Each structure stands twice: as C-alpha cells, then as structure tokens.
C-alpha cells in the first residue's frame, strides 16, 4: 500500500507529503560497522552498574520487546528533512531537557503537544513553508553530566543521570538497570497517547479560545500576536467551512509528529536497533524517529559516533564552541559518507555572545567539505545561554535566547546558507525557569514554579513568543 508511510497519522498534503519519493537508501550497513562495533571504541559518559547479571537480563528483554516506531516512518522523516536541507521546510524540535517518568501523564503530554502544534502553525504562517515537528519526547531520559558526582548538603553523591539511570532523590543515586526497562515502557505509553491524540482531532486548533494570549504584558505586542492568531484561525475556519478538512488527510484534524532523544546510553539504543528489512536493508534505531549525539560525546573515534554512523535514521549532532572548524568536515563525512541531504542535522549551540565567533567558520567548513545543502542547520539557542540567577537557580534569559536565534538567522543569510530550524527546551506548562519574554518574568519570580530537574525550559507563553518572533523575522 502507498499509505504505509504515515507517522502518527495520515500524511497531509500540505505538511508531510515529500515532493519526491522517499529516497532509496544507498549501501546499507557501512563497512566495519555492526550492532556492537561501538563497544571496541573509547566511550565517555558511560554508566557503571553494580549488578552486571541484571544488566544482561534487562538487555535481553529489551532486544525481545517490539519496536516503538517503524522504518517507513523514519524514511518519511528523512525525506522531510531532505526538504529542510533544500530550504523547502522548517524544522521545529522541542521538549524537556530531561524527561521524567513522571511526565508520562495526560496533562504534560497534551500541553507539550499543544504548544508544539501552535508553534508550528505560527511558524508555517510566517515562513509560508511547511514545518517538520520533532518532539524531544518519549525517550529523552538520559543526561550527560559535566561531573560524575556533586555535593549536596555537604556530602558528595553521584550526579543525577536521568530517570533511565538513577533517581533524582539522593537516596536513589545508584545506577539501576531496571530503569532501562522503565524507559522503554514510559516511552511506549507516551508515544501511544501522542499517536492517539494526533489521530483524533487534537491537532484542530482553529478555535481562537485554544490560544491564550492574556500573559502578554505589552499592549502593542498582544495586538500584534492577536492579529497573527486571528488570521491563522480565520484561515483554518475557512478551510473547515469549505470542507477542506473533511478528508482523512486534512491538516486540520491530523498532523505528523515525530519523536527524538539524545542517543546517550548505547546499550539501550543498540537493543532497539533492528534490521527490519534484513541486513541488506540497513540498521534502524526503532526506539525513536530521530536521535542525536550530544556536545560531550561527539569524538570522531569515540563509541557514540561509531554507533550512529551505522543508522538509517536521520541523526543530529550538537555543535558548540569546543568544535574545531577544522574537524567538522571529517565528523560529517564519518556520519554521512554518501552525502544524503537531510541525513545529518547540525544543532548549533554557542551562546548569544559566541555565535559570531564560531558559526561563520563552521558554515565555511561545511561548504569546503561539500556538504552545503546536504546538512540541515538548526539553532539550539538554549545550551550556550545557561546562567545562575542571584537566587542560585539555573536559568536562561529570553533576550539572549532570541539574540542567538536572530544572529544565527542573519549569519546564515550573510554566508549564503540556510538556517532550517530551531531546537528548544520547552514545556507546555506554566513553569518559571527562564526569565523575560512577553510575560516579563523577573529573576525574583523564578521560585514561584521552578520545576526542572535539569536545564531551565521555556514555558508555554515563552515558547509561543519564540514562534511569533521567528515568524515575524521570516515575514520581513
Ligand atoms: C541537551 O540537549 O540537553 C544537552 C545536554 O545539550 P548539549 O549536548 O548541546 O550540551
Ligand atoms: Mn539541556
């Protein structure tokens, strides 16, 4: 059948059907690569378990469990990202820094889906091109840490490494292999609810009441946003009136939503990596549609790059100030020797004050290596802009986030390159973790609802703010 390519729903004509057929993949498993070739390479951020026998049991169970996603969905995303690389689509990727098992519950899932959908509508309106939505959800549990231990109440304890490794509670910091199974089942439950929401009308946001702009403090800004929302909801309403949304492929009732996470715990990732078309068809990580390599684990000859180079999934690489421009070409070539457009997404995260010093050289290195128009460039304006508030809260200033984003857009334009997306840490809930935005959250307000166990996230209002600002930038 031709409809087996859908992700969480039937693809809609405007937002998901690739202009060209899903590209037939080149030679599948690269030379020298196997499901465990990464185990022969130096590894960083590795987890040490006490109970090795239990690890063996858990990994066998994970290998036995069914995939969470399937290969045609992944091929579909790769085709959409090819269009991002070609400048025909925009990528919106976002979600928690560290997803907790506790977030696997109706409200947090619905709220995150809602904010991502609304942002994508605003972005589509602004840029007039379809948006690819990729959630940092249903598996974003593992966290790399700068130090293996931390001091809490004067005592040195193991760092919290994410819910799939240990617990945030200091009494629960030993690495527990059973948490890997917990990660699988919480991912499955999250994904199951996401899929059912997007296939049953949750994506229909044409009611102006689903847009709450009351938080916007400045009158002119609110009028500005309201005008965009009115035009959006009018257009959506019109489509409903003329019946354009009555077929199953309507963009109003259903949308594509993909899931992603950092591929940090390679034992887990390898268990979810399968060869659904046999060895000649290549290896797919069927635990997510998209996985990425973090800024701390992208060593050219390291275990993470080795594991990732064998995947058919589209993959991401975080690129920060510590990435020498001279090494970038070799890294991309290792991950994408066939130069497949959309295969590799570079997620840049320098900081508002450093982007000018690094991004132009990185763009030049990509061009020199022959990957211009092949890689997707996306901006993560979060990780280079983390700071401590006077209260001690880890926070980020909205203005710096927006400055890195607009500076990145400008630099890409100047260099004849294309910034194809944004990568954000956000939540659909009304948390107080980042300062600023149209709600003008002050540093003194941070304790009001500070929830994160890892990095500070944009709340619902601040996330929408980013979408409005990017949309207006494109409109110009
Ligand atoms: C993250 O995305 O949460 C993260 C740890 O980012 P980076 O690898 O860029 O530091
Ligand atoms: Mn983070």
From TrEMBL:
Comp. bias (Low complexity): 1-27
This protein's name: Phospho-2-dehydro-3-deoxyheptonate aldolase
Keywords, sorted A to Z: Amino-acid biosynthesis, Aromatic amino acid biosynthesis, Cadmium, Cobalt, Manganese, Transferase
Organism: Allomyces macrogynus (strain ATCC 38327)
Residues bound to Mn(2+): 97, 383, 425, 455
GO molecular function: 3-deoxy-7-phosphoheptulonate synthase activity
EC number per UniProt: 2.5.1.54
GO biological process: one example: aromatic amino acid family biosynthetic process
Highest taxon listed in the record's lineage: Eukaryota
Cofactor-binding details, from the entry: Binds 1 divalent cation per subunit. The enzyme is active with manganese, cobalt or cadmium ions.
Family the entry assigns: Belongs to the class-II DAHP synthase family.
Cofactor(s) needed by this chain: Mn(2+); Co(2+); Cd(2+)
UniProt-listed Gene3D superfamilies: Aldolase class I
Reactions performed catalytically: D-erythrose 4-phosphate + phosphoenolpyruvate + H2O = 7-phospho-2-dehydro-3-deoxy-D-arabino-heptonate + phosphate
Pfam families: DAHP_synth_2
Top EC class, one word: transferase
Pathway: Metabolic intermediate biosynthesis; chorismate biosynthesis; chorismate from D-erythrose 4-phosphate and phosphoenolpyruvate: step 1/7
Residues holding phosphoenolpyruvate: 136, 318, 349
Range of residues in the leader sequence: none
């Amino acid at each position: 059948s031709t409809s087996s390519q859908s992700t969480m729903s039937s693809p809609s004509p405007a937002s998901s059907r690739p202009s060209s057929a899903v590209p037939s993949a080149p030679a599948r498993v690269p030379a020298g690569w196997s499901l465990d070739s990464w185990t022969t390479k130096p590894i960083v951020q590795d987890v040490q378990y006490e109970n090795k026998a239990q690890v063996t049991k858990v990994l066998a169970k994970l290998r036995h469990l069914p995939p969470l996603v399937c290969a045609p969905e992944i091929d579909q995303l790769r085709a959409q990202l090819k269009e991002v690389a070609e400048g025909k689509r925009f990528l919106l990727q976002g979600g928690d820094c560290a997803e907790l098992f506790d977030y696997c519950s109706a409200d947090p899932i619905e709220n995150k889906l809602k904010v991502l959908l609304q942002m994508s509508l605003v972005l589509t309106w602004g840029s007039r091109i379809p948006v690819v939505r990729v959630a940092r959800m249903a598996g974003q549990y593992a966290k790399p840490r700068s130090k293996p231990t931390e001091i809490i109440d004067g005592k040195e304890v193991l760092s919290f490494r994410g819910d799939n490794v240990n617990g945030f509670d200091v009494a629960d910091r030993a690495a527990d292999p059973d948490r890997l199974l917990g990660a699988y089942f919480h991912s499955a439950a999250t994904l199951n609810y996401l899929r059912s929401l997007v296939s049953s009308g949750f994506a229909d946001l044409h009611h102006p009441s689903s847009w709450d702009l009351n938080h916007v403090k400045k009158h002119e800004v609110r009028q500005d946003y309201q005008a965009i929302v009115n035009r959006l909801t009018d257009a959506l309403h019109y489509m409903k009136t003329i019946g354009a949304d009555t077929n199953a492929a309507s963009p109003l009732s259903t949308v594509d939503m993909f899931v992603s996470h950092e591929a940090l715990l390679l034992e887990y990732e390898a268990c979810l990596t399968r060869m659904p078309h046999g060895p000649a068809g290549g290896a797919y990580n069927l635990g997510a549609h998209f996985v990425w390599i973090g800024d701390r684990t992208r060593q050219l000859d390291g275990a993470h790059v080795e594991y990732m180079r064998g995947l058919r999934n589209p993959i991401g690489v975080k690129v920060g100030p510590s990435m020498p421009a001279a090494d970038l070409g070799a890294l991309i070539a290792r991950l994408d020797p066939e130069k497949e457009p959309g295969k590799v997404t570079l997620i840049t995260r320098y900081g508002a004050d450093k982007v000018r010093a690094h991004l132009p050289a990185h763009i030049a290195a990509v061009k020199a290596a022959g990957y211009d128009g092949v890689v997707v460039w996306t901006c993560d304006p979060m990780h280079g802009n983390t700071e401590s508030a006077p209260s001690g809260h880890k926070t980020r200033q909205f203005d710096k986030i927006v400055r890195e984003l607009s500076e990145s857009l400008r630099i890409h334009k100047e260099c004849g390159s294309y910034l194809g997306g944004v990568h954000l840490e956000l939540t659909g809930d009304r948390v107080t973790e980042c300062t600023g935005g149209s709600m003008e959250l002050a540093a003194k307000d941070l304790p009001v609802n500070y929830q994160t166990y890892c990095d500070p996230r944009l709340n619902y209002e601040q996330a929408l703010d980013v979408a409005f600002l990017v949309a207006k930038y494109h409109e110009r």
